[in-house]
DNA sequence: CGGCGTATTGACCACCCTCAACTGACGTGG
DNA sequence: CCACGTCAGTTGAGGGTGGTCAATACGCCG
């Protein structure tokens, strides 16, 4: 469960919260952090129970979900590499975290993290700004959930994923024939994120494929053929 | 538009962000803040444009909205007395703020606010914690928007309002016959908050009234007759 | 009284949900 | 090697919730 690697060669060192720490601090950071791996589908942290550690996502995708008593579930956020996971300044998390794909985390005790923030203004500042961005993202998604049609919802999600993947794989190789994109979510998870049912997601993806906007490969991959049309479908203006 | 009052007698002094400032700072704070009043329906701040000030809500209710190109609108947050309005560390706000009722704000320049946070760790900390709470609240609302039925949505909102009002008016007088609650939102605004249409909100309120859970008075007031049943209606478990 | 804006009510129907069957990929075991 | 089970995804038929459009009621104010 727990392995060791050096902060100096960390893949997300440049963009995670700890990018604000000076090099001299890295060896100390290395000592107080530890890594964890999860398989797709595994539970990471939950509501209710005491939660005494936080983490940075090293690789993979984490989904944050909220569940009602009768089982209805809503994904309320996705975390990618370099994103922060956990709820400082509270004893528990108000939602559950689960591995959507295989996930590597770089963990540390919540108390250590709070101490780090106390002594490193830059890091505290970055954390604050990222939290503000999370508020913005959550509210953007509220607009999607409350006002968009199924077609717009699906297009919006695919667009988001395509952008996420494009920025992640900064290869620059063969960009023209279509943007290839391996979705980190199953149809069921897409539905849970969009406030839809699986069948509706499947049908809308089918429609986008028939319209030539995207192609689907076996499994979870899609190829964006016409990103402009995808973007227009994501917020159709009455036409 | 701009009037002066002393921080020392401020109504939200005990709960706003500035409650973390020592008394010695109040006269200085008094000098750099100014007040503004808005009538119900007035625009406060918007997307796109440069936004160089932030504020604390002194009284009234502010709604934060997002609008799509074709006019579809979603309320993404409500601010009550002592809540903070504005988006520090960014040049503009990603959503519009509008007065839902008559509103009084205590404003200061964004730069001054950022400076204050820089020099007052307690205030910075409180701001961070409140921002984290905003994330939680937004995600809670995502669950409502994505998964709840119209009946549950309306009940959830009425419950929220009843609790807000109960805590605000800590009178303790005549609690038994029914919790009186003056809604700060029109039916249209309730619909915009819940991801519904006005007609649906109106019908669901009618059903709750017929069921004896609430009573309605002329205008926007409601009386909660059975808060337990209202809470159960807000998250029905398959019954 | 008439005009205006908000709330309510009614009739209709479309979008999405529900339930069900089917397909294809994958793994296991005979 | 194929039969079989499983699981994710797809497709189809039908129904219900909530949207749409229109008329009416109500409160407010000149």
Can you offer a commentary on this structure?
Two copies of one chain form a homodimer. In chain A, helix 4 crosses helix 6. Helices cover 38% and strands 22% of the residues of chain A. In chain A, the strands form three sheets. The first copy, chain A, has a four-stranded antiparallel β-sheet with strand order 1-8-3-6. In chain A, strands 2-7-4-5 form a four-stranded antiparallel β-sheet. A three-stranded antiparallel β-sheet of chain A has the order 9-11-10. Chain A has helices at residues 26-32, 110-119, 121-147, 150-168, 187-194, 198-210, 227-233, and strands at residues 34-38, 43-45, 53-59, 62-67, 73-79, 84-85, 96-99, 103-109, 179-182, 214-216, 221-224. The longest helix of chain A is centred in the middle third of the chain and has 27 residues, at 121-147. With 239 residues, chain A is an alpha+beta fold. At the A-B interface, strand 5 and helix 3 of A face strand 5 and helix 3 of B. Chain A binds a DNA duplex (30 and 30 nucleotides) through helix 6.
Question: What is the terminal separation of chain A in angstroms?
Answer: 53 Å
Secondary-structure element order of chain A, N to C: HEEEEEEEEHHHEHHEEH
Q: In order across it, which strands form the biggest sheet of chain A? A: 1-8-3-6
Q: Which percent range fits the helix content of chain A? A: 25-40%
Percentage beta strand of chain A: 15-25%
Average pLDDT of chain A works out at 92
Structural class of chain A: alpha+beta
Runs of chain A in which pLDDT lies below 50 for 5 or more consecutive residues are none
The major sheet of chain A is characterized as: 4 strands, antiparallel
Global outline of chain A: globular
Give the helix tally of chain A. Answer: 7
- Radius of gyration of chain A equals 19 Å
Number of strands of chain A: 11
